[in-house]
Design brief:
By secondary structure, this protein is mainly alpha-helical. The chain has a domain at 8-78 and 100-123 and 190-301: Rhopdopsin 7-helix transmembrane proteins, CATH 1.20.1070. It contains 12 helices and no strands. It has helices at 11-38, 45-74, 81-114, 119-122, 125-143, 145-151, 168-172, 180-212, 218-251, 258-268, 271-283, 285-301. Helix 3 (81-114) packs antiparallel against helix 9 and helix 9 packs antiparallel against helix 11. Odorant receptor. One of its GO terms (molecular function) is olfactory receptor activity. The chain crosses the membrane at residues 12-35, 47-76, 88-107, 127-151, 183-212, 224-248, 260-280. It comes from Tupaia chinensis. InterPro entries: GPCR_Rhodpsn, GPCR_Rhodpsn_7TM, Olfact_rcpt, OR51/52/56-like.
Length: 302
């Protein structure tokens, strides 16, 4: 792997913000997991889904960033084919699973606002667990065929991936065979996982808005919308760069330079994971209160 093609001289400088964001992502999401697991008042459906998102963010950034930094710092771009395929599978698996978690969080907000009196009875711990298992199972069955799709191809000498990490089409383009099946499967994967999730999220929020604007009290409406604010920010942060990259690769042609594609792809695996815990920390009072308690205890013991 070559890192960011055409920007090799700037790799060290680019690595500094990426490394900082990776540290913030791992530390912030790990701390968020700690808060949710250790505070009983946070053992509610919304925060249990948030803990799943935090775990997915840690894994997403950790699967890609250490190798990326090794390329930037030590020019350690070499990787075996098996390791590259493994990274590819984990990357796509976590991405699809995180999309499903965001859909589950949208459903959580829908139930909380449209059926507040039945919220606890609908989203029981058993149901939340089953939703988490369903997200993992769906992601597995969607991403597992990628292994066979890249191993079925014949490779005849090309071994340079113009990227900082291994992803499906980057590996497939090294083959001498036709990769039409890989291209079609990639589009089907995007259509029936990510695009379907986005449509269902939009439907959830359309129903939420209909319910909110039927509330007579203005303060109650603002409070209901406020509970969705952090989730909407996270959704935009997750899907906007993903759709930009997808559309640019297929319809952008040569109008967008390759190094811009790769740079945005690198930022994508560290920027949302680093900002998600900050967004929820700023916009969620219960998490703010728990953070204050933890730091007060630390100050007392120190």
């Amino acid at each position: 792997m070559v890192g960011i093609p055409g920007m090799e001289d700037a790799h060290v400088w680019i690595s500094i913000p990426i490394c900082c964001m990776y540290i913030v992502a791992v530390a912030g999401n790990t701390f968020l997991l700690f808060l949710i697991l250790t505070e009983r008042s946070l053992h509610e459906p919304m925060y249990l889904f948030l803990s799943m998102l935090a775990l997915a963010d840690v894994l997403l950034s950790t699967v890609t960033t250490p190798k990326m930094l090794a390329i930037f710092w030590f020019q350690a771009g070499g990787i075996s084919f098996g390791s590259c395929v493994t990274q590819m599978v984990f990357l796509h698996f976590i991405f699809v699973a995180e999309s499903a978690i965001l859909l589950a969080m949208a459903f959580d907000r829908y139930v909380a606002i449209c059926y507040p009196l039945r919220y606890i009875t609908i989203l029981t711990p058993s149901v939340i667990g089953k939703m988490g298992v369903a997200a993992m199972t769906r992601s597995f069955f969607i991403c597992f065929p990628l292994i066979f799709l890249v191993y079925r191809l014949n490779y005849c000498g090309k071994n340079i991936i113009r990227h900082s990490y291994c992803e499906h089409m980057g590996i497939a383009r090294l083959a001498c065979d036709s990769i039409k099946v890989n291209i079609y499967y990639g589009m089907i994967l995007a259509l029936f996982s990510i695009c379907l999730d986005v449509v269902l999220i939009l439907i959830s929020y359309a129903l939420i808005l209909c319910a909110v604007f039927r509330i007579p009290s203005r303060d109650a409406r603002l409070k209901a919308l406020g509970t969705c604010g952090s989730h909407v920010c996270v959704i935009l942060l997750f899907y906007t760069p993903a759709f930009f990259s997808f559309l640019a690769h297929r319809f952008g042609g040569h109008s967008i330079p390759l190094h811009i594609h790769i740079l945005l792809a690198n930022l994508y695996v560290v920027l949302p994971p680093s900002l998600n815990p900050i967004i929820y920390g700023v916009k969620t009072k219960k998490i703010q209160d728990r953070v204050v308690q933890v730091f007060s205890l630390c100050k007392t013991f120190c």
